[in-house]
Amino acid sequence: MNQRIAIIVPERGGLAQQYHSRVEDITIDHMVIAMPMSKAFPVLLQRGEVFFGRTVINGLAYEFTSSLLAKQMNPLPVWVIALPYNIKKIQQRAFVRIDAVLPVQFKEIINDEVLDETVSAFTKDISGGGVQMVTERRWPIGTRMLVTIDYPDIGPLTIKSEVVRVHQPQSELTVFWIGIRFAEINEKDRNTIIRFIFKKQLEQRRKGLE
After folding, report:
1. CB-based contacts of 8: which residues, under 8 Å, 6+ apart?
2. Separation of alpha carbons 177 and 169, rounded Å
3. 210 falls in which pLDDT band (50, 70, 90)?
4. What is the pTM of this model?
5. Distance CA 11, CA 38 (A)
6. For residue 162, what are the β-bridge partners?
7. Residues in Cβ contact with 52 at an 8 Å cutoff, skipping those fewer than 6 apart
């Protein structure tokens, strides 16, 4: 009871929005949660539609799938939902990270000046806080870069970033995994990236349900 949960609701175009809720009641065949709200208005979801949720219990983060059974307005506005299924433990990070191969172009920044040389690479995974990209050159930790990533359905986003991690997966190959942190990013661009990640997660889950 009163366990806080995040509700992730698919939207048109394959995107998704995240809302806050909490557990109001649990029975043998359903769960009751506070009706998710968006700017003081109830979130629109039709009976039978599937949504996804996240919660943290005893310091461990979990994801689950459920569906809307009914809505009730009295005595409190609530959703009656199916008992969670497809429950799995997930890594609890500041930002959710997913595997994704996207084209990247970046330029090194030295003494606050952007160099002319443009280097091309691909991402290995992405999150709202940064990316891991694959290059043929080792970049020292602390290197500052102007990174441009071309996100499908969004377009290119250019962000000042910093190298925070370097890994060479196979010593005999000159291939490096470079961890990049977004050092200067506005919240609009960060939210756009997070929405893109939610979309990809939903696509992956739907494939798993088929």
Report:
1. 16, 17, 18, 19, 51, 52, 53, 54, 198, 202
2. 7
3. very low
4. 0.55
5. 14
6. 144, 181
7. 7, 8, 16, 63, 64, 65, 66, 201, 202, 205
Q: What is the DSSP annotation of the chain? A: ---EEEEEEE-GGG-EEEEEEEEEEE-SSEEEEEPPEETTEEPP--TT-EEEEEEEETTEEEEEEEEEEEEE-SSS-EEEEEPPEEEEEE---SS--EE---EEEEEEEETTEE-S--EEEEEEEE-SSEEEEEESS---TT-EEEEEEEETTTEEEEEEEEEEEEE-S-TTS--EEEEEEEEE--HHHHHHHHHHHHHHHHHHHHHHH-
Residue 13 has pLDDT above 60, yes or no: no
Residue 100 has pLDDT above 70, yes or no: yes
Say how many residues make up the chain: 210
Residue type, 116: D
Cα separation, 80 vs 67, in Å, equals 9
Does residue 27 carry a pLDDT above 90?
yes
Measured distance CA(41)–CA(35) in Å, rounded: 10
- How many Å separate Cα 99 from the centre of its chain? 11
In the predicted model, is pLDDT for residue 176 greater than 80? yes
Alpha-carbon separation of residue 149 from 16, 47, 130, 154 (angstroms): 21, 38, 11, 10
Q: One-letter amino acid identity for 83?
A: L
| Nearest to 159, CA basis, from 188, 122, 197 | 188
Compute how many other C-beta atoms are within 10 angstroms of the C-beta atom of residue 89: 10
